[in-house]
Amino acid sequence: MQTHSNIFSERPYWAKRFGTAPVLPMSLDEMEALGWDACDIIIVTGDAYVDHPSFGMALIGRLLEAQGFRVGIIAQPDWHSSADFQKLGQPNLFFGVTSGNMDSMVNRYTADRRLRSDDAYTPNEEGGKRPDRSVIVYSQRCREAYKKVPVVVGGIEASLRRIAHYDYWSDKVRRSILVDSKADILLYGNAERAIVALAHRLAKGEAVQNITDLRGTAVMCDTPFAGWAGLDSTTLDDPGKIEALPNPYDETAQSSSPTPADDSSPVAPLSFVPRHSAKQERQHTYVRLPAYEQVKSDPVLYAHTSRLLHLESNPGNARALIQKHGEREVWLNPPPIPLTSEELDRVYELPYTRLPHPAYQGARLPAYEMIRFSINIMRGCFGGCSFCSITEHEGRIIQNRSEGSIIREIETIRDSVPGFTGHISDLGGPTANMYRLHCKDPKIESACRRLSCVFPGICKNLNTNHAPLIKLYRRARQLPGIKKLFIASGLRYDLAVESPEYVKELVTHHVGGYLKIAPEHTEEAPLSKMMKPGMESYHRFKDMFDKYSQAAGKEQYLIPYFIAAHPGTSDEDMLNLAVWLKRNGLRADQVQAFLPSPMALATAMYHSGKNPLKRVRRDGEAVSVARGMKQRRLHKAFLRYHDANNWPMLREALKRMGRADLIGNGKQHLIPHYQPAGTGGAAEKNQRFNTQHTRPVVPAKKPKAQRKLRSTTAGSPSGRGKRRR
After folding, report:
1. Gap between the Cα atoms of 521 and 509, Å rounded
2. Cα gap 358→44, rounded to integer Å
3. Judging by DSSP bridges, how do beta strands 71-75 and 41-45 pair with one another?
4. What is the dihedral of CA 428, 434, 437, 438, to 10 degrees?
5. Is 411 helix (H, G, I), strand (E, B) or coil?
6. Residues 574 and 702 in one domain
7. 269 found inside a domain
8. Of the four, 212, 422, 547, 579, which is 20 to 30 A from 462 by CA?
């Protein structure tokens, strides 16, 4: 892995003399109280401003403040004009634009494209406080407000849309968000290194157009940069016959069905760039991806491009990527170098108030309430689940905080956060039990191009030692004033079973009665497309969970999560999952329907019907996809087999599938013959997918629910399945 200078090693900007702001200002009055005549940097965000490290605008804002810059926040501005974008005046260096902690389309719409009425990142959950495609709209308004001020886009929405990407809500392939936003530069992934370097270089007078070499950034250019050797992506992963790149000046090329190229076409097919010699430096080699004009009309090329993007994601060996959009190119520099523990500690120990901005006057912010007493101990995930955005944004290499830093944050919460009652709600991250897990050999890690360290099985080079995490748990719960420390982040149970001592520690001390885990499915076909382990690991973990719960004298239950309508899932697969749920006495109250997020490998499956986990060819493996709402509702109905509103749909499906034997009034049947009054019919048609990150839960009525759960924890092998981790 390449080394990099410490992000706190740069000499602070002259405005450091103003000191630390109690809270980053959101008004001219606050700026005046701080003695500022201007902001150096203004961050525009789609979320309410919460001065907490779990909120991107606060983390980046406080980091830039530590570099000596004066940072202002414009949170959830009125985007219908540029007025709100002028309320802090003109920034000296740049506007930083982000949609917030979520992609704005995921935030605003359900999996069946219905507009949400609430927003967890807005005071009092008020909906409609951010526009669709917020990064594009905010960037345009910043440009209208101050034409000469550089616009820098970043965060999850920019990160997941950095190249041409399939957009589920418009059902088409859209251009890179860098093109549509007309921003000067895009920062992707965890952007601390890039944002610090960019700010200091702009402060020294360098023009933003000349800053093209920062890792973790994307910029526009006319041609590939000098000194770089090129490779055509199709020489690395041959998708088969490729049509010519459409001529943008040819009227016939504007039709929805591109005409195949012939010998008279003035535009050559995607060109082959000779391979570099073994002696040429890999870090000065770029890979040319198929152009936007090609992938938007060729799903196979789209899947091929998605696969190449993910293969070029290891900071130790990733090459730059380039993709033509019209007459210009989108140039992606290699991913950022992960932060060291020392750097990550300092980032999380900056002087956050850990509270919403005072301007909100005590309004309820559900997203804040969720993380108010939680602590992030690491970043990244090497699970590589095909439907998840974590790897695409944070990377596969785990970045860890030190034990001392985590303990200090617990003490800070205990001593200063209002309302603390002694309960830490979570000590985790993207995955609860990947803390300090890493490749055994740094050289192997730098050379690795696997999409997952744990699929189809745990890599022999992966260190799975949970001892540092066990030690952290024990030290944390012994702190004075700490009554209970819960683990609420997703648990990777196939890793947990490698350390029975960890499972014992977790179950004995850190489970609050229920533990949610994510098998996602029970059947091999969808699991292989999700890159999730089989049910064998689930049952091994369940046996340990039951054993240690009993030994601790606690009645505790596993709550498995499942996904409906994931690519690769047939109606028969969903039926088998429903039978497994019925056999194990589980009833899902809320179901996660697959939502194709931009750039995910599962999204490439959904759009193309091909499998990008393997070499993508036109005659390669096809993936079944539930696209129509009728089939997606059916898949959801199988997960909620116990809901009487679903019974008419399920009866029809079971008869069609030749499984009418599952219809009856006995315990062995999935659904009954009878239909309760007031259920089915219109009620069935009005069902909506629940796409919030909630998992299926067992009905909370007692003791009936406990009797049902008891049957699931008594241990009965069969099945397998769940979501993000």
Report:
1. 28
2. 18
3. parallel
4. -110
5. helix
6. yes
7. no
8. 547
Alpha helix stretches (DSSP H) within 552-646: 571-583, 601-608, 629-639
Structure letter (DSSP) for residue 53: T
Strands (E), 445-493: 462-463, 484-485
229-232 and 285-289 as β-strands: parallel, antiparallel, unpaired?
parallel
Domain boundary among 460, 486, 510: 510
Within a domain: residue 353? no
Yes or no: say if 635 and 564 are a contact pair by the CB < 8 Å rule: yes
pLDDT over 50 (residue 54)? yes
Kind plus residue range of the DSSP H or E element containing 153: strand 151-153
Beta strands in 429-579 (DSSP E): 438-439, 462-463, 484-485, 514-520, 557-564
- Integer CA distances (angstroms), 445 to 5, 382, 449, 657, in order: 20, 11, 9, 47
Structure tokens that stand for 634 in this block: 């059916």
Q: Quickly list DSSP for 464-476.
A: ---HHHHHHHHHH
> Percent of the chain scored above 90 by pLDDT?
83
User: What is the C-alpha separation between 360 and 129, in angstroms, rounded?
Assistant: 14
Which of 245-254, 562-571, 642-651 has the lowest average pLDDT? 245-254
664 token code pair: 């009856």
* Each residue's pLDDT tens digit, 213-231: 999 999 999 999 998 999 9
Q: Are the CB atoms for 571 and 625 separated by under 8 Å? A: no
Q: Where are the alpha helices (DSSP H) in 340-388?
A: 341-348, 366-371
Contact 327, 248 (CB under 8 A): yes
> Does 360 map to a domain?
no
Tally Cβ neighbours within 10 Å of residue 707. 10
How many angstroms separate the CA atoms of 632 and 629, rounded? 5
What is the DSSP secondary structure assignment for residue 482, as one 8-state letter? Answer: -
Taking a C-beta distance cutoff of 8 angstroms, is the pair 634, 574 a contact? yes
Nearest partner of 454 among 403, 394, 413, 398, judged by Cα: 398
Give CA separation, 289 vs 175, 256, 278, 303, 323, in Å: 13, 21, 21, 11, 5
111 and 29 within one domain: yes
Overall size of the chain counted in residues: 725
Prior bond to 703 cis, omega within 30? yes
140 within a domain of the structure (yes/no): yes
Neighbours of 251 (CB within 10 A): 7
The per-residue pLDDT for 93 is 98
Q: Tokens for 494?
A: 């196939």
Residue 254 has pLDDT above 80, yes or no: no
